[in-house]
Structures are given as C-alpha cells and as structure tokens.
Write a structure and sequence with these properties.
heterodimer, A: about 140 residues, alpha+beta, Archease, Possible Chaperone, Chain: A, domain 1, 5-stranded antiparallel sheet, 3-stranded antiparallel sheet, B: about 475 residues, tRNA-splicing ligase RtcB, 8-stranded mixed sheet, 19 strands, globular
C-alpha cells in the first residue's frame, strides 16, 4: 500500500493518506507533508524532537500534529523525515519526529506549504485500513 | 474529471445563478460572473459548490458572489466575495480571508521604454533575483525587535517608509494608506510573531512574483494620462502577502473559531468556513489580528518595492526618482473589510470578505486619493507569466458586487496536472523564445506556474469589463520574471 497519493486540486495540493492503523495514518500524513516540502531521498536524521498535543477529536488532532511540525519547520528550520507515534487516543497524541537542519540542504526545498486546512478533513475507516484526504494551502 | 451537477442558471451574458433552493441552509442565491465559454470550466471542479456553501453564512446579504477567475479553494472558492450585515449578527470567517492575509499586488511606473531595458534585461533580472529574497521559507535582511514588530503591525507601510524603505507619497497610493486602523498586536500570538520575524522583505514562493513588464495596449487614454502611462513604457509589478505571520494568524483563528460554531449556534457545511459574529469577542479579536497581518503585508510589499527600486538604480545608474519609479497603486486581494453600503435605502456597516477578489471603488469614492477622483481606483490584475497582465479602474456599477472585481487569471490546472503537462519541456526555454526571461528558486515552480495552468486572463478581464464591474485601462506583457 502507498503511504499517500496526490489528488488533483486546482489551487492547492491535495493528498490522500493511507495507514493500516491510525498511528500509521498520522505518521504517513506527516511524511506526505514533508515529502511535498522537500526532497527527502537519502536524508539522514540528526535531530529528534518529541511532541505532546491535545485536541477534541482525531481529525483536529491530525491537523494539530501537522501544524506543529510545520511550525517547527519554519521556526527551527528542520526538515523532518521520520515519524513515530508513541501514543494516540481521541484527544491526545505523543509522538517523535526526526530530521535534519535545513542549513546546507536548502537545495532540497521544493514547495512552500502555507498551512494545512480543515477542508473536507475526515478520517475514513475502510475494511482493513484508514484513509484521509488533506488539502494544503500552497 | 468530475463535473459539478448542481444547478447553474443563466441570468444574463455575464451572470449565472445558483438558486438558494439548491441546498438546505443557503440564505441567499449564489451569483457567478462568467461568460458562456468560462462557465463550463467552472463546472470542472468544486468551486461552484463552495459558492453555495458560502451562502449559508449567517448575516450574508444579497448573494454569495464569485468573480470570473473563480476556482476551487478550501472553504471559500478563490474569487469569492461575501458581505455580512454586522448589526444583524453577520459573521466574519478567517477561512474567508485565507491564510495569506492581504496577499496583494502593486504596480510601479518608470520613465523607461522597452528599448532602454532590452539590452540590460539579463543584468536587471539577475540583479532582482539576487537582491530580493524569495523561495521556500526565505529570510530577509530586515531584522526587527519584537517591540519594533508590534509597531510595524500597527503602522504597516508607514513603518517601512519611516525606516527608509520608500517615500511618503508611496502611502498615498496604497489601499488604506498601507495600514488599516485599529490593528490589535496583542491578538497576534507569539508563534505568529516568530514566523513573521525573519520574513519582512521576502517575496515568498509559489505564485508570488516580481515582473518587469511593458505596456502593449492602451484602452483608456485619459486614465493612462493620470497614471503617467503610455504604450511601450516599462512598469514593475509585484505580488506577495503576509508570509508566515499571516498564515499562522489564520491557522490559529480557524482552529479556535470551530468552537464558536456551537457557542453561537452556527451551522456551516465545512469546518474551514468556521466563523463568529463580527461583534463577538472572538470576531473582534480575529479582526484585530487580521489587520496586523494585513499591515505586515503592506510593509512587506513596501520593502520589496524599495529593494527593487534599488536594483533599478544600480542597473540604470539613475535614482528611482529620476527613473520616475512612482507607485501607481497597491491593492489587497485576500482580506475582510468593514465598509458602508446603502442597502434598501438604509446605510449599513458590512463585513466584506474578498477571497481572491479585489476592491474596486468607482470615481468620486471618498477613500480614493485626490488624483484618482475621476478615474476610480486602480485595480491591478496579474495574469500568468507568459501572457498579459492588466490595469483596470473601479466603476460605480461595481456597487452590485460590494465594489469587488477579479484578482487574476485564476488557475485552471492543478499543480500536479501542470507538472505532468510540462514533463520533458523547458518552460524557461519556451518563454525565452517569446522574449521573456524567467528566474525561479523553486525546482518545480516554473512547471506549476506554466502559462497553460491558468485561465486566459484576457477572457477574465473581458467578463468584468463586459459586466461593468471595472474598466480596462491598459494591458502589459512580461519581459522579465522572478519567482519564488
């Protein structure tokens, strides 16, 4: 199974993310976002950061997780490429993300994602996997 | 491709209606400005559905509008206009302004002719590319302390001018004189400050650009005279917004406004349309923060223009004043404004959302600079990098759209489709054959922004001119382009 695919959206970028479990879905969503931002091929992570976030439901938690990573990308200049969800419930997430400073990897940067949106954001349970569509404002 | 199946009824040559009977919850009709050719394009994505969705906002007056450059956004369509009646509980929606608060364009004239610029075009475009920070997460040279940044958020362009980035008369020719009053820096989070701190004086990426253009067609001689423009003359256009600061403001308020939906008993079809009454504490807080981001964007474009003037000075060995580099106008096209309208004989204060739409005041409007009293407000319409851009003016008839008009060509292809269509081609090479020199820092930017990814701006402008929402002044074509 693909981790994600891009779908056609006229002005922005849409991704359909897949995961066997909700944890994997959250990891793959973060991967999809950074795969759009930068060329992740062969990046060796040197920094790991831990995150704990709360929200009201899985969708809002997913958005909060992506927003947190995006904020860290822009203010701490880290390209994240590995993600591990340590604990996940409907209102809480604990996770780790590893990556590398942008520093001399500027040529890896591809797309400026301004933000993640709530547009049509709905996690769907299929027979044996989960999927969610996410639209990024670029 | 999925074709939208909802009802679109023809009203006249330029207007189409989505009746409010189409969907439960619609409070008004949707009205799309388009002609027969363009309306078929509108059906190919979900933009028309978004026009219907916006019609559910509490307090919305008259209709949920879309300009002819309409395309699929998130929540609001791009090209969407919605005015809400503040006294009647009308709402403000952060998603209806968008992440790039006060994304906008400015147009600068010069005394130069194409024949002056052609021989130095390469030098000019490379120098612009070198001196103007652009690209993903780019940082500028303009460093401000937090105390200064709070001042910048209140004073907008004036802050920039006071710090040596431009001249006093630039303010006269900027929408709101480059700063909306009553901005509330306390309503801007630490995180937003942090994201904005290093980005003043940076262009951004994606569709943001700086272009050197030549005027290649004149429609309104009298207006051109007022603006100091003639055929063959060089102008500079720049398109940028509020960078990370605006994105963060929108993001945080879109999130917190979801709680307002239950608090104020509001039902909307999508969370990205989350909103609160303009007069609520939440509405006032967002408006105060939005104004800060808008002022940041004006200061940003003012700094960018200053940097570009410096490049022209270096390349042509003349001061910007001697080069006649006067600002013609600066307009916002992602913003919510509190404006007065006469509705059925009563003066009302409305909150006008323009999401990818430009304010277009007609002649004699009290907010125009004295010099533009007779022409109406200049409206700057960037096209794609291979075809044309336009200068228009506002009309009195545009009162029907809450003095709003189109904002650009409007995308036609998704970014992925554009990249696919451009595989194996050199877009820079194709443009060079047309005499256009393009430099870009993003690897895929040129393919994503290829001319064919956009609707034909000429058709878009024909619709707003045909419908009487704006008047054509002149047309430009690009010579040099820098992209993020």
């Amino acid at each position: 199974m693909d981790r994600y695919i891009q779908f056609s959206h006229t002005s922005d970028i849409g991704v359909r993310v897949f995961g066997q479990t909700l944890e994997e879905l959250f990891e793959n969503a973060a991967f999809a976002m950074f795969d759009i931002i930068a060329d992740l091929d062969g990046i060796k992570s040197t920094i790991t950061q831990e995150f704990e976030l709360t929200s009201q439901n899985y969708e809002e938690l997913l958005k909060a997780w992506l927003d947190e990573l995006l904020y860290n990308f822009y203010t701490k200049n880290i390209i994240f490429n590995k993600f591990e969800i340590v604990k996940l419930s409907e209102d809480f997430i604990s996770a780790k993300a590893s990556g590398k400073p942008v520093a001399d990897n500027r040529n890896r940067l591809k797309t400026e994602i301004k933000a993640t949106t709530y547009y049509n954001l709905k996690i769907i349970k299929k027979d044996d996997y989960y999927e969610v569509d996410i639209v990024f404002d670029v | 491709m999925q074709i939208w199946q909802g009802p679109i009824e023809k009203i006249d040559d330029y207007r189409w209606r989505i009746p409010k009977s189409y969907m439960t919850g619609m409070r008004v009709d949707g009205v799309i400005y388009a002609d027969d050719r363009m309306i078929e394009d509108v059906r190919t994505d979900k933009a028309a559905q978004q026009v219907a969705d916006v019609a559910t906002l509490p307090g919305i007056l008259k209709y949920s509008l879309a300009m002819p450059d309409i395309h699929w956004g998130y929540g609001f369509p791009i090209g969407g206009v919605a005015a809400t009646d503040i006294e009647a509980g009308g709402v403000i929606s952060p998603g209806g302004v968008g992440f790039d608060i006060n994304c906008g364009v400015r147009l600068v004239r010069t005394n130069l002719k194409e024949s002056d610029v052609r021989p130095k075009l390469k030098e000019l475009v490379y120098a612009l590319y070198n001196d103007i920070p652009a690209g993903v997460g780019s940082k500028g040279d303009i460093k401000v302390t937090e105390k200064e940044e709070r001042k910048l958020l209140v004073e907008g362009s004036k802050w920039a001018v006071d710090h040596g980035y431009g001249r006093q008369d630039d303010l006269e020719y900027t929408e709101e004189r480059g700063a909306i009053k009553d901005a509330l820096p306390d309503k801007v989070s630490e995180r937003a400050y942090e994201r904005g701190k290093h980005q003043s004086g940076t262009l951004g990426s994606g569709n943001h650009f700086l272009e050197v253009q030549v005027i290649d067609e004149i429609y309104d001689e009298a207006a051109c005279k007022v603006f100091g423009l003639e055929i063959g003359q060089i102008v500079m256009m720049l398109h940028s917004g509020s960078r990370g600061l605006g994105y963060q403001v929108c993001d945080e308020y879109s999130k917190s406004f979801i709680r307002c939906l239950s608090k104020y008993n509001i039902e909307v079809p999508d969370r990205q349309l989350a909103c609160a009454p303009v007069n609520s504490d939440e509405g006032k807080a967002y408006l105060g923060a939005m104004k800060c981001a808008a002022n940041y964007a004006w200061a940003n474009r003012q700094c960018l223009m200053h940097l570009a003037r410096g490049v022209f000075e270096k390349v042509f060995g003349m001061s910007p004043r001697d080069l006649g580099m006067d600002l013609i106008y600066d307009v916002a096209h992602n913003i919510a404004k509190i404006e007065k309208y006469n509705i059925n004989g009563k003066e009302k204060l409305l909150c006008v959302h323009r999401k990818g739409a430009t304010r277009a005041f007609g002649p004699d409007h009290p907010e125009l600079p004295a010099k533009y009293k007779n022409t109406g407000q200049p409206v700057i319409i960037p096209g794609d990098m291979g075809r044309n851009s336009y200068l228009l003016t506002g009309t009195k008839k545009a009162e029907e759209t809450f003095y709003s008009t189109c904002h650009g060509a409007g995308r036609r292809l998704s970014r992925t489709a554009a990249i696919k269509a451009c595989r194996g081609r050199s877009i820079a090479g194709e443009l060079e054959k047309k005499g256009i020199l393009v430099l870009s820092s993003g690897r895929e930017t040129l393919a994503e922004e290829a001319p064919e990814a956009y609707k034909n701006v000429n058709l878009v402008v024909d619709v707003v001119a045909g419908a009487g929402l704006s008047k054509k002044v002149c047309r430009m074509r690009p010579l040099g382009v820098i992209k993020g």
